[in-house]
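BUG-280 | component: ligand-complex export | severity: low

The export step for adenosine monophosphate jobs runs without errors, but we want the raw record kept on the ticket for reference. Input record follows.
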Amino acid sequence: MREIDLHVHTNISDGSETPENTVRLAGELGLRAIAVTDHDNVGGIAEAAAAGEKYGVEVVPGLELACGWYGREIHMLGYDIDPDSEELQETVRWIIYDRRKRNEQIAKLISDDGVKIDIDELEASHRGSTIGRPHFALRLVEAGRAKTLQEAFDTLLNPGCKYFIRRNFLTLEEGAETIRSAGGKPVIAHPGQYRLDRAGMEELLERGKKAMVAGLECYYSGYTEEQTALYRSYARRYGLCVTAGSDWHGKNKERINLGSGIDGELCAPYELLEKLREHD
Ligand code: AMP
Ligand code: FE
Ligand code: FE
Ligand code: ZN
């Protein structure tokens, strides 16, 4: 049964829709619960929770943190967090400060190339939102430097491209500890995105397990049945819960549908959320 979607972005990070609209859409789709998991930001949770009451959708308070992993990044979702936790807030402030420094450098590179970007203006027009590469991608498309957001990332903003500046990351352990300190359950997001071989996956899950990670996002937009079966077998082996999320970003990732993924491959029962809550 298609009942939940545990990976959803709003315009508090790089999604296109407000928390209220996101929850309303979930209600229209008949979903029982969604987790709001904005990047490095818990500022959308209160609005989403209020909308949840209004539209009869359970809103799981969450977020998504990026953690460094051998020069790349892996993503950690947190569920049932207390957004007012002091330790969480402090970590988020550090991330936003680090992003701000990186954003200034990216804005300078792009501005020097003739596409003016004023970080103060960008922040003012997205008050309270996590600003990152998606916002630069949009500006580059508007300025005609790329045809699509995807092209802007692939040719200008990804590692190896001329506007790429690396930000600093939490470690996997710090990410998990931040979520635990806010009373939440850490879950490793979209394991298929990291291009890890078997040994790499095992290392990730072993370290994750030691760091008190509770689950693995085995169902994800675009994953085949074979992929999901593989991740489910890893989850079983490491005693991790199986979770499911679309990584919906509204119009900013057009192919992904809330609750159902790209081709309806996502169809997650509420039971997955219950099991996660029962997990230590
Ligand atoms: P940042 O955290 O600022 O480095 O930006 C990374 C974010 O950009 C990710 O969370 C993605 O949601 C988004 N992103 C990455 N690649 C793409 C892409 N090709 N098209 C649109 N958004 C993307
Ligand atoms: Fe994103
Ligand atoms: Fe992610
Ligand atoms: Zn995400």
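Assignee comment: Attached the raw record above. The CA atoms of residues 12 and 129 lie 4 Å apart.
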